[in-house]
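Hi everyone,

Forwarding the result from last night's run.
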Amino acid sequence: MHLISVLALSLLPLAAHATVNGHCSGTATGLYLKEGICISTSKCNDYGGQYITGGCPNDPNDIKCCRIDEAIGDGCAPNNAGYSYCTWTANGCSGGSWLNNRCPGGDNYKCCKI
C-alpha cells in the first residue's frame, strides 16, 4: 500500500506540466486558456501568432502559450475571405468550417474559418 502511495505522489508534479502541442494552463486566461497551444516561440511566429509567458508551466523556456488568429496576425486562412483562427476541435467551430493542415499541433487543433 505504501508503494502505491509513493508512486501516486511522484506523479503529482506531472499534472501541472503542460506538454508541447498541448493545451495552455498555468497563468493563461481568457482566449489563451481556451484556444492556446504550447509550442516554441519560433513556431508561433512562423504561424503569425502571439505568445505569453507562464501558460506552459515547467516546459523549456522557448515553449510558450501561443494564439493564432486574425485579431493578432493573418489567421490560419489569410488568403480566404472571412475570419479564421486556430482552436481545439473540442471547442467547436460554430458558424464555420474546419481547415486541415493550417495550424501547429495534432489533429485535434485546427483552423476554424468563419
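DSSP finds three helices and six strands in the chain.

Cheers,
N.
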